[in-house]
Amino acid sequence: METFDFVRDKLREWGLSELIQTFEDEGIDKESFLSLEESDIKDVIPKVGPRAKFKKRLKELLQAQQIQIQPSCHPVTPHPLNRSGLKEELGPSTSNFSTLPVTDEGEMHGKRKLDYETELSKKKPRTSEQHCGSVLGTSSEVNILANMKEIMKRVHDKLDEQGDTKLNAFLKDKLNDLETGKKQLVGVFGKTGAGKSSLINAIIGKKDLLPSGDVMACTSVMIKVEANMSNSKYMAEIEFITKKEWKDELCSISDVIKENDDDDHFEKRSALYGTDNRKSPEELMGYKYFFEIPEFLKCRKKILTCESSSELSEKLAKYTRSDKEETGRQYWPLVKCVTIKVPNVTDLLEHVTLVDLPGSGDSNKSRDEMWKEFVGCCSTVWIVTDTNRAASEKEPWEILNNTISLMGNGGECQRISFICTKSDAIEDSDEISKDEGRAYILNRNEQAKKQVREKFNRQHKIKKHFIGDSDLLQVFTVSSREFQKEKEKFLQKDETEIPDLQKCLQTLNDRQSKTSNYVSGGYGILSLIQGANRSKMACHKPEVCAVLEQRIKDELDKVRQSMEEAYKVFENCLSEGVKKSQESCENNMKFILAPKGKQDRGFYATLKFLVENDGIQKPKNKKKSEININEKLTSCMRDHIDEEFKKTFPNEGRCGPFKGVINKFTLDTDSLVDKYKDVSLQLIFLKTEEEKLKTNLNDYIREKKKQIYGSLTYSIKDSMQPCYEEAATHRGKDTLKNMRDTIEKHLKGSKNIMFNKAKDEMLSQMKRLMKRILKTLEQNMKRSIELSLKTDDNSIPDVTEEYQRGKKWYDKLLGNPNKETPMTCGEPLKPKAASDFQPMTHAQSHVSGVTVLIPHILHETDDHKPSYRLDCPGAGLFQCASTGLVFEMEKKGEVLYRTVDWDNLPSTLTPAGPLFSIQCPCVRQLHLPHCEILSDDPDKLSVAHVIDGKMEEVQPNHMNATHVVVDVTNLSEYGLFRKSFSHLPVQGQVLLFHQKAENRPHSCTLNVLLLPRNVPICEVESHQMGCTFIPTRSNCTLSPRGRYGLGCELVARAEIQPKSGMFDCDYGQNYQSTFRVFLDSGAETVRLILMDRGNNDQRVWECLVPLAAAAAEFVKKQRNALIQRVMMVLPIADELLGKEVIREEMYTRISKETTNQMQMRQLLKAVCAAGSAAMSEFYSALRNHEPYLVADLAKCFYK
Ligand SMILES: Nc1nc2c(ncn2[C@@H]2O[C@H](COP(=O)(O)OP(=O)(O)OP(=O)(O)O)[C@@H](O)[C@H]2O)c(=O)[nH]1
Ligand SMILES: [Mg+2]
Predict the structure, then answer these.
(1) Which of 551, 969, 1097, 1188 has CB 3.0 to 4.6 Å from 1091, enough for a Cys bridge?
(2) In a mutational test of the pocket of ligand 1, which residue from 191, 198, 319, 491 has the highest number of ligand atoms less than 8 Å from its CB?
(3) Percent of residues, the chain, with pLDDT higher than 70
(4) What is the pTM of this model?
(5) Planar angle of CA 19, 881, 979, nearest 5 degrees
């Protein structure tokens, strides 16, 4: 009601009170008010005068709201749920969605935001700085999330008003927990000059952002790059080391410089102090050197905010780069880390952070710790190296081998990419032709890829950390330089492979799963509250609790058993490792204490440094590698456990820790929903809780396993510490010998204890983790059961409105937008014809002032393909609701069109949309729908104009996020094509068609088609004879020629053919099913999941698919026969009463009727009015009580 108040107020305010009644009658609430289309307005306000007045006012209102949503103008107010919610593991970062203004009409905001962005891009010339990444589907996800957040905030506020009961506090906790998940970290490693910074710049489309240089090491500090989610500025947060750390470093630099002239140290000091660099450390800590950076003195971060990337780069130079030949003071030696926030890169970096990691660790302790933390948190590692020497160069392989323990078993790396850079670099390139150059480069790229793969396969040390997934290694050969050139020299944009890397980032960015997690978690909580309010009288609660408690016990037993088995194997490996370490440690130590080829004189300083620094010497010179006595001593034990460790805690996420037993843990609440309808909402909550619990537990285990793995070195270091301290006391003559003796003696005396201690420590940590896992699963599930099924709390607020809105968003994102809420009987679920269904993709949002028209569709053509007729009432822009085509009309006119085969396209060109044959003399401009994700490159697509069988290429006028616009003078056939095949992902759609099985009403087939999003659904429908289109959330991103697999859940048996299918991105006219799902269980709803076979089976789309419609259709069509032939009316009515499908009064009314037929009429009237879910229940009761009748009727029905 509250939302109609808004409408009433507005109409009054605008002097249009006479319209209030009409608006109320038409059910126009706040949300629909703000999204009224031209045609709606015409319907509700037929009179021209008031209509013009209304339109003017509405336009002003919408414009005012657009201004509100400009990110930079909107102050960022932290959402109360975010305070304890989103945990950022790696430094501060803006919560991804918290800055979106959320109002009741959030969806409209998103829509207008896109309009606004399009407007902006129209006004400003596009520069290479812009990275236009708006994806329609994604943007609607952002809106759904924003709406869900707003709903959850309201719920939180309502709970706040209710006082603190146990259930209330529990619910608030759950709300606060909704926003979890950390960013994915991509570590960019490589030797200096390999092209890391240039690569990052190219990928995010900001040419000058990170420093790049020719002569010497250029980037000197760790730089994180992430999306600026709060405004459109370029920002940098500079984090400094502490004053004490700098002073210590100055002292150590003085000592080293005294002993040997170290270039690195000299460079650091002169960067900051210029010619003063020989002063004492105390003098060098004077204020005068730091007055420009008071933040360093106050231990705060320095924040830089700029309008452009080049301005930021310029300001950042003195904090990041060591190659600048400038006279001013340089501060890079003081910097610990820089975080750069870039606007307009949400499609790549909203949930991903790129880290440019120069060198391999750092001599400064705190920088080194941070470096290690970054390495340990990278889920993807990019090793950057020169294409020319990709496999032969030592450094990249050394980096990989030296860091593998940190990123493999000791970290969370799931993917390693070798990125061979500078693929364009050819000697004497000016002397060869473009074609020769291109051929040379492509051939060298192939060779480089092959060699890298072969060499990688020989890296046994690396393989010990990964379970051998074929997707672990990817090799790219890129040219950042050619990608950024206006005009290609040798390579086309796709051949620079930068777009492929962008695609990888987009996949990692995976906004959808973050949104899904939040939305399904939120829906779970809403279900719980709604369920708690509705089912105080539910009689099945104790029974359900008993079933669930037994299931917890059984499931925990499985988890315990599997973990104990893993523990035992592990214990054996460790024992073996201890034995071998004891045998070999003294020998190994000899190599450390007296390395081959080192003179005693030279080694003295090294050993001295080692014993004074806990056995570790970090390289001051980036070219040398670290010496670490503790690591060396641990390595033998590690070698023995690596294989088992990676199997127990695989980084690759497919099966999860402990051989997948935690992922398999389930109370299977789905199986109880049908039987215990009175607590179905609580069961939905428990399911979402279970999912969330497992996700959190897996995150927790991942962190813990890193500690467990690292515990070996810590334990050994601990055992060695006394001897380092003792060795460090030696002075004078024979110091080197005495240091060596001390260490050797200590090792001899303690080796029998030391390695066993390390083993025990590791095992006890593992035991603790196992206990914690069992306790967490048990306690959390029990607590959720107790609070959802055993607690009656009268102070729970009414959230009916929020529940219904939340459910709408949940269904829109993850399920079926038309499915009614359980426990209520809403509108019947009408199986929509495809032609009724408006494709979301080409909604009118991107073209302002467009009127959407429903076409007349004629099917009476020879080839059964539809023809479309649009009656455009005057001049202006008109969009066909079925195909997404937009026509700019010069005057009133009738547009007739249809799709035709792409017969005349040369084989070297690829269609990028259907070919439309159009007749109408009044069309001036045509907007052809495309399915590109990044529409920032107008050269990507070309327009074909076919006249009399001959094709000519027409230059498009412009391209926006949804359409390619072309001026037309002579209408005949128009379509989009591209000049070369592209593997880049496109906006795709997953279309579902339901096909009944012969003679078996409870069996069916789902035809699943993967298509580009600009294929009109009704074109496909005409090829799916005898099938019913199932409207679902169909949008997803698909890669042409990519392989995909389909999964089906929530049903006992489903056969899917084939196991994997290709998305061929075809515009041929026979749209074939990519997959067929055969169902034979009478399931009402199934969940379909589309997985990217080429990317670890990552889920790219999932959806709840309602099948109840089939049963409903049967009931409706067989109504007369049922009235005449059903004998068991009352037993069926009894069952429906028990399931709360019909109420007591209805049951009494039915039973009072005197004949079977009259009873059946009443019963059918009730269930049909209650909607498809009720009809489906009726159908299943009918099957139970009249199986032969159902079989007989089915024969006629499915004939
Ligand atoms: N020909 C060619 N040169 C490139 C390409 N990418 C980078 N370079 C050049 O290689 C040099 C080093 O590039 P950077 O991006 O600074 O390398 P880096 O790995 O960040 O180096 P550090 O910051 O020192 O670690 C620069 O002169 C770049 O212009 C490329 O794709 N093609
Ligand atoms: Mg660099």
Answers:
(1) 1097
(2) 198
(3) 81
(4) 0.59
(5) 145
